[in-house]
Amino acid sequence: MDAKTDELRAAHDVLAEFYAERLAGALDQMPIDQAVLGLFCDLTLAAGLGTSVADIGCGTGRLAPYLAARGLTAAGFDLSPEMIRVARREQPGFRFEVADVRDLPLPDASLGGVVCWYSLMFLAPADRPAAFRELARVVKPGGYLVSAFKAGDSQVRRAGHSTGLGVEFDVYWLSPAEMERQVTGAGFGTVFWAGRPAEGAEGSPQGYLLAVRAS
């Protein structure tokens, strides 16, 4: 594992309980996020490719109940062992495993879709093509990818210090153009993109992208 990936994993091991406390029930207060995820769920089911989806970079597993309530069978994967431990505790009954987005423990074309909710923003530029190709590999033709991300100029920033937990790691506020370039380069076609202004202490606008795996 390279040094930056190890730093990211170690930081999120420290952040796992912090996220579990701060993000519990947060989706209930985010109607736009629910709407985008709901569109993903509806399109995935309508595609008739099965109900299996994966939340890549699932963190504490907070999206799994929402996806299940909309009729999908969700499994979660995260780089951080502590995030997976907390996810298993907080969301019993769902499958959660430690994994890197660049090397997913999933067969080719095994999923109806993938969710990448604020998880692709940790990828350095050199790592993005391999990660997006891996996402395309595991999604069936006609299946969907949905992502939320901090929208910006794609420049690297250091994050984590504001938590007061003594951790820092690289994060990229990705431009919508960069996100679209990566998904189309991996074999997806854009279905829907949107954004909203920053709210409260968010620090950046938020972007959303929904794409379909080419046949």
The major pleated sheet works out as:
7 strands, mixed
Q: Report how far apart the termini are.
A: 33 Å
Order of helices and strands: HHEHEHEEHEEEHEE
From the helix content, strand content and strand pairing, which structural class follows? alpha/beta
Principal-axes geometry comes out as: globular
Overall pLDDT score: 96
Strand tally, please? 9
Biggest sheet, strands in spatial order? 3-2-1-4-5-9-8
Describe the protein in words.
This protein is α/β, with parallel strands linked by helices and 215 residues long. 34% of the residues lie in helices and 27% in strands. It has 6 helices and 9 strands. The protein has a 7-stranded mixed sheet with strand order 3-2-1-4-5-9-8, with helices on both faces. The chain has a two-stranded antiparallel ribbon with strand order 6-7. The protein is globular, with a radius of gyration of 16 Å.
In summary, what is this structure?
The protein is of the alpha/beta class. Helices cover about 35% and strands about 25% of the residues. It contains six helices and nine strands.
Keywords:
alpha/beta, seven-stranded mixed sheet, two-stranded antiparallel sheet, 6 helices
Give the SSE map.
Layout: H1 3-23, H2 31-46, E1 52-56, H3 64-69, E2 73-78, H4 81-90, E3 95-98, E4 111-117, H5 128-138, E5 139-150, E6 156-159, E7 169-172, H6 176-185, E8 188-196, E9 206-213
Parallel strand pairs: 1-2, 1-4, 2-3, 4-5
Antiparallel strand pairs: 5-9, 6-7, 8-9
